């Protein structure tokens, strides 16, 4: 299936920037930080009050019991070409021992970039998708209560310079390094825009000669992003997650003929009677036929009758025996 260039590559230098900040959420219903265990919350409250003209002695600040306040960390993404005054979303996450941020309001907080400069200011009501209730020793919680979002809760205060190209060239970067896809992208651009407009620098970067005027350059890049190309098929790969038992393989995976025997060993302990029984199920030898496509491989592996966790061990053994023609990646 053909894909657009905008889905396969991005313009070099056009990128997001991560922002982070620290703030206070107020207005909680006795679900805030237990300040005896989170002294940074009372310190932040004391600093905030001093800026408002309320000065408390340090010994009184340390004794504050503020169950309606929670210290939070703020994260946001500053998109490319963002200008001052533009709103962006903010994620609010508790950093203390608050039980819930539901119903809270974030006070004005600064969001800084990696260079320490302030790029946005956040404030607003926190939206929490979860709900919880507790009484006595019973407690019910649905979803997560210690994190929420403020849609459009931050206002950009400083713009980041985002140059589109250098000199007469714009550089595209493929999402994944692949010489075949890079060559097909060059051919598609040159066919549409003219010979010699694009050239591949390596398996990831493509240099494109673009117009000097910004209006013409934006229209030029918009045309390129809409071009369709057929990306080169990636490497044959099997991805295994042993924590969840997930196994995912792409269509390039193939199998050579092999034989697999996989038996189960179970240990049963009868605590009241003190009996211990070890049982090993019969593990017959299965012949796995060579598979040239994904459907054949799935059918062959299902014939073994192994559960997902057993399948992890079988695939690793197949790879070690040279029968699995694919890269095995464990995440």
Main attributes of the structure:
331 residues; alpha+beta; four-stranded antiparallel β-sheet; 23 strands; 37% strand
Give me a quick take on this structure.
This protein is of the alpha+beta class and 331 residues long. It is built from seven helices and 23 strands.
Structure, described:
The chain has 331 residues and is α+β, with helices and mostly antiparallel strands. The chain folds into three domains: 140 residues, no CATH class; 67 residues; 94 residues, no CATH class. Helices cover 22% and strands 37% of the residues. The strands form eight sheets. The protein has a six-stranded antiparallel β-barrel with strand order 3-4-5-10-7-6. The chain has a four-stranded antiparallel β-sheet with strand order 2-11-13-12. The longest helix is centred in the middle third of the chain and has 15 residues.
Please tell me the total number of domains. 3
| Strand content bin | 35-45%
- Residues in helices, as a percent range: 10-25%
Separation of termini? 28 Å
Largest sheet: 6 strands, antiparallel, barrel
Task: Report strand order across the widest sheet.
Answer: 3-4-5-10-7-6
Helix and strand string, N-terminal first? EHEEHHEEEEEEEEHEEHEEEEEEEEHHEE
The structure class reads alpha+beta
In round numbers, the mean pLDDT is 82
Q: Sum up the overall morphology in one term.
A: flat
Cα gyration radius (Å)? 29 Å
What's the total number of strands? 23
Number of helices: 7
Query: What ranges have pLDDT less than 50 throughout 5 or more consecutive residues?
Result: none
């Amino acid at each position: 299936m053909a894909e657009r260039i905008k889905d396969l590559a991005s313009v070099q230098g056009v990128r997001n920037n991560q922002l982070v900040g620290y703030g206070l959420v107020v207005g909680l219903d006795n679900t805030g930080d237990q300040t005896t265990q989170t002294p940074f919350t009372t310190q932040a409250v004391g600093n905030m009050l001093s800026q408002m003209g309320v000065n408390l002695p340090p010994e009184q600040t340390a004794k504050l019991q503020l169950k309606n306040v929670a210290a939070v960390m703020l994260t946001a993404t500053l998109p490319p070409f963002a200008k001052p005054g533009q709103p962006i979303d903010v994620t609010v996450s508790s950093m203390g021992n608050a039980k819930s941020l539901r119903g809270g309001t974030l006070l004005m907080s600064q969001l800084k970039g990696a260079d320490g400069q302030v790029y946005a200011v956040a404030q607003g009501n926190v939206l929490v998708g979860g709900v919880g209730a507790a009484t006595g020793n019973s407690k019910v919680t649905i979803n997560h209560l210690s994190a929420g979002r403020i849609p459009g809760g931050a206002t950009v205060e400083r713009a980041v310079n985002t140059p589109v190209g250098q000199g007469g060239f714009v550089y595209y970067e493929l999402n994944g390094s692949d010489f075949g896809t890079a060559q097909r992208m060059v051919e598609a651009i040159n066919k549409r825009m003219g010979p010699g407009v694009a050239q591949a620098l390596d398996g990831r970067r493509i240099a494109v000669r673009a117009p000097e005027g910004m209006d013409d350059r934006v229209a030029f890049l918009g045309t390129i992003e809409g071009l369709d190309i057929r990306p080169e098929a990636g490497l044959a790969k099997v991805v295994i997650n042993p924590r969840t038992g997930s196994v995912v393989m792409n269509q390039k995976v193939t199998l050579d003929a092999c034989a697999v025997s996989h038996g189960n060993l179970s240990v049963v302990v009868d605590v009241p009677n003190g009996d211990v029984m070890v049982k090993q199920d019969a593990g017959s030898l299965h012949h796995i036929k060579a598979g040239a496509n994904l459907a054949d491989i799935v059918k062959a592996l299902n014939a073994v009758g192994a559960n997902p966790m057993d399948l992890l061990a079988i695939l690793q053994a197949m790879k070690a025996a040279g029968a699995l023609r694919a890269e095995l990646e464990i995440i």
